[in-house]
Amino acid sequence: MKLMLFVFFVLALFSSENSLSSELFTGSKVGVKLGVKGVNDKSYRDKLTIDESYGLFFSYPLTSDFHGRIEYNFFDISESTEGKDIYLNEKTISVLLEYHKKIGLELDTYIFAGSGYWQLERNEQSDVGNLSLDGFSPVVGGRVEREVAKNLDLGLQLEYIPWIGKEDRTKSRFDIGSYDSFQISLVLGFNF
Question: Confidence band (pLDDT; 50, 70, 90) for 41?
Fold first, then answer.
């Protein structure tokens, strides 16, 4: 909820007509992501699960080649595994450094790396119940985008986040699980 309030505050600041916001945020971008995310759950026989993911982002130019970026991603899945109904909910806030390179006149490419803070909740319809955990993982990826209208970009982003969750080596019934995630998203961004 706090993150959503922050995003709305930033958007309100962007939409302001005063010269401070227009000068301060020139070259910035806000947008949304819609994609699919695959997780390789190491707790359940390396099963690959794919489901939709959603996100918001804010990008700010640091130099002509480098941008800072903050992303919020949301992902959840429901599945039945070994006779158990499992619901997995993951929220990630990532802070990234992007390298920007223009290819010709049409395409912008970005390579990024950073760190993601994740909150993971796993609910099972069994005697285990609800388990939750949070932590940090590295984030790497890349994006290609093209301007489709004035100040509006459409792109494709690939992202990899390893080591989300924690695997219990004893395989106890309280194991929340550990997985690597792979995400491909359509990205729609508004430039200031």
Answer: low
